[in-house]
Amino acid sequence: MFKFFESNLKGKREDKKSGNKSSSSLEGTFAIIKPDAFHKREEIVQILRTEGFLLVAVRVFTFSKLTLAKCFGLNSLRGHEDFVDFMTSGKVLGICLARKDGIRKLQKLAGPKNSVEAKMYYPRSIRALYGKDELRNAIHVSDDAIGTEREIGTVFPTILYGDEAYDEIVVADENTKEDLNETLRKSVNEETLDNKEYLMKYVCPTLLKGLNEMYDKKPENPVIWLATWLIQNNPKNHS
User: Fold this and answer.
1) Span 206-222, mean pLDDT?
2) 3-177, which class in CATH?
3) CA-to-CA distance for 26 and 94, rounded, in angstroms?
4) Pairing between strand 27-33 and 54-61?
5) Rounded Cα gap, residues 96 and 169, in angstroms
6) pLDDT tens digits for 46-82?
7) Domain residue ranges of the chain, discontinuous segments joined by +
8) d(CA 222, CA 40)
9) In whole angstroms, what is the distance from residue 54 CA to residue 211 CA?
């Protein structure tokens, strides 16, 4: 359903190689609120919203070692024992976000990876406000477009790979917001979901247009706003 993310991320990687700036107005990125800051997740999410990020999808879950290795691109857990033990120790909040220049803006908002350094030089960053040290630094954010694609593909596989994607994460029941996939699915005829030509010709451009308008308007409830917008602007209704 969110295959436009895949094309945008590929374009970002190609632009980086060629030295050209991406023409996309919105850029997908990814964050994880770590176990040490999970109890402050609502405050951190509010900071993200205040700074202009759109929350495309959110998910509460607990990492398995296998999923953690896949998400962070670890070929081996050896040498990462402290990190693995910490990240699998409790619930985390995975967040797929979008905004203009999203990856760089989120890195700046998060601050230096070592919270001690963040407190000294970037006291208003998320890691300065909620982190403790380099391991317990409250939030992980994607390093680049390649990392973003890998991480979103692990935590939100349907965003990049469609509804047929295998989802290996067991989601916790506690206080998770509705995945945007479910809301959007209500506004699209189910029989068209597997039609790739229809998706690329109608759904992806329409969805990207809606996300751009939502970014400019910054509605109080973006999920409901976007679902309503998609119903009103469904290209099938105007054909």
Assistant:
1) 78
2) alpha beta
3) 19
4) unpaired
5) 15
6) 999 999 998 888 999 999 999 999 999 999 899 999 9
7) 3-177
8) 21
9) 8
| β-strand partners of 27 | 99
Write the pLDDT tens digit of every residue in 181-191. Answer: 443 343 333 33
**In whole angstroms, how far apart are CA 36 and each of 66, 135, 166?**
21, 9, 29
CB 79: neighbour CB atoms within 10 A?
Answer: 9
Distance CA 165, CA 156 (A): 9
Alpha-carbon distance values, 101 to 97, 105, 175 (Å)? 11, 6, 29
pLDDT single digits (tens) 83-134:
999 999 999 999 999 999 999 999 999 999 999 999 999 999 999 999 999 9
The owner of tokens 């405050």 is: 43
Q: What is the pTM of this model?
A: 0.68
Cα dihedral 123/124/128/131 (nearest 10):
160
Tell me if 8 sits within 8 A of 211, measured CB to CB: no
